[in-house]
Amino acid sequence: MSLLTVSNLQGGYGTNIVIDQCSMSVSPGEVVVIMGGSGSGKSTFLKHLIGLKPPMAGTVSLSGEDLYSGSMNDLYRRLQHIGVAFQNGALVSSLSIFDNVALPLRETTNLPEDVIEVMVRLKLELVELLDKQHLLPSELSGGMLKRAAVARALARDPKLVFMDEPSAGLDPVVASALDDLILKIKEALGISVVVVSYELESAFKIASRIVVLDRGFIIFDGSVDQIRGSDNPRIQALINRTAEPMSFDPEEHYRRIMGIPEG
Amino acid sequence: MRAQLEVLGSIALNLRSTCFYLAFGRRYGQPVRMGAINQQIVQSGLLAVPIVTLLCGIVGVMLAIQGMQTLAIFGAEQFINVGLAVSIPKEFSPLIIGIVVAGRSGSQITSRIGSMRLNGELDGLAVMGISPHRFVDAPTLVGLVISVPLLVVIGNFSALLLSGLYASLYLGISFEAYLAQLVQLIELSDYLLGISKGFVFAILIAAVGLGLGRRVEGGADDLGRKTTASVVTCIATIIGVDALYSILEQL
Fold first, then answer.
1. Which of A147, A236, A250, B54 supports an S-S bond with A127, CB 3.0-4.6 Å?
2. B125 and A CB contact within 8 Å
């Protein structure tokens, strides 16, 4: 059974539709990278997948259960089976790294404190932050913060972890180390990972499958080899990093610059 | 007007969700933790004791001075204890404490929740399956509901003691005799009414502080605006509710 199934998802803000007719699934042990340029709807798509935004239409199912059906408490219960590492970490700033990783265990399980301590140490060791456990999030570098977020996402040993732009804003060496960490998580723990990213190199390195979002629609869902061989010009533009040719209308340009309304 | 109603509605909904987790959180695997409540009690209650003691004491002395100056016109300064015994526990102590806590804790709550919202910490909690209402809001509400009435008791003690000390020196009577007389004059109903005001003010401060914190959007600018709005709204509402108490008492 798929861990995550998205069917005909339509979503956005207010009445503004940002993504439409999006369908995809994630099987156990897969690393799925969701790619797309700026404004493609990646972040909105992720918000719908992780329980932060109910869809306008369509469904998001976790292990066959509709994520958004029932009350808020049903949603919270389902979310306890996944892990999410946000781009900026989203760690509780008043808690140490150790307490941040321990937070989901303390708040949503009945495990004794000594067991929690061992589990937290294991996760911090995995992301190589055990020696930084007493520091506050504000005392960590960008790369460390992302690794701490990964440790917190893994705290409850979920089957599915979401990561929002893990390599963004990091130098190539640290970004590559984070990619290795994602592969280690997949191989050592058998966890499925959904990564939202625009980093091509990273995507090609870690992905079992790549999903490309473009202007709110999924235009590609396939393997790394398939995306390389795709003849879709939008995908070619994305993987070859070529800008879309712009049409230039001098009159329209003049009107925009001068602030003259259309018509 | 529509915008104000929308703010009021969101504050009420936020308070409703918070109360829901207080009452039923454990049943849904979302228990409100005692540790977080204790932290709020320390923050809003214990750390406010020095300023509350000082301010209530000063206001008590000022009341004694003003009251005796007025009563001196009729040669009735010795009756100052009657005025103090009624006005301090029923009116001044809860009002001063409400304003002090609104300034200290109301702003602190809004800026904390607002920062958490801007940093994505509230979203971070939600995706872990931890309701922010029970993890952040409920301990804040309970902490204030416990702290503020206790601060009113401390404020009463300080104001009555210091005003009594001044009045006994001024009137040339023994402090012990003055206090004994004062204790006899304090009506239990007035005392409890003052404490009940503390309870209501605590709910108001928590509701406004938390509700406006949740509405912070954009960045630091809006955080500052909402923090200021929180303090102003809390103080205005406290004075309004206090006036309402007085009006209802007259009916």
1. A147
2. yes
Residue B4 burial class via C-beta count within 10 angstroms: exposed 0-12, middle 13-18, buried 19 and up = exposed
Contact criterion met (CB < 8 Å) for A52 and B126: yes
Render A40-69 in DSSP notation, one character per residue.
Answer: SSHHHHHHHHTTSS--SEEEEEETTEETTS
- B121 to A103: CB separation less than 8 angstroms, yes or no: no
Q: Check CB contact under 8 Å for B128 and A91.
A: no
A73 vs B28: CB contact, 8 Å cut-off?
A: yes
Chain A contact set for B119 (CB, 8 A): 88, 90, 93
Q: What is the pLDDT of residues A120-166, one digit of tens each?
A: 999 998 888 889 899 999 999 888 898 899 999 999 999 999 999 88
Report which secondary-structure segment, H or E, holds A217: strand A217-222
User: Which residues from chain A sit within 8 angstroms of residue B30, using beta carbons?
Assistant: 73, 76
Sequence-distant (6+) residues with CB within 8 A of B100 are B48, B51, B52, B55, B151
Q: Helix or strand or coil: residue A8? A: strand
Output the six-digit token pair for A139.
């005392």
Q: What gap in Å lies between CA A23 and CA A207, rounded to an integer? A: 18
Q: Whose structure tokens read 């069917």?
A: A7
Strands A192-196, A65-66: pairing kind: unpaired
**Counting one residue from A and one from B, how many pairs have CB atoms under 8 Å apart?**
66
Helix, strand, coil shares, percent, chain A, to 5? 40, 25, 35
Are residues B121 and A91, on separate chains, in Cβ contact within 8 Å? Answer: yes
What was the ipTM of the complex prediction?
A: 0.86
Residues 145-174, chain A: which have Cβ within 8 Å of B? 152
Does residue A249 have a pLDDT over 90? no
In degrees and rounded to multiples of 5, residue A38 shows phi and psi of -60, 135
Tokens at residue A255, please? 């009107």
pLDDT of residue B66: 92
Residues of chain A with C-beta less than 8 angstroms from the C-beta of B125 = 92
**For residue A254, with 0-12 CB atoms within 10 Å meaning exposed, 13-18 middle and 19 or more buried, which class applies?**
exposed
- HSE-up (13 A, CA, CB side) for residue B39: 13
Q: Do B127 and A103 touch (CB under 8 A)?
A: no
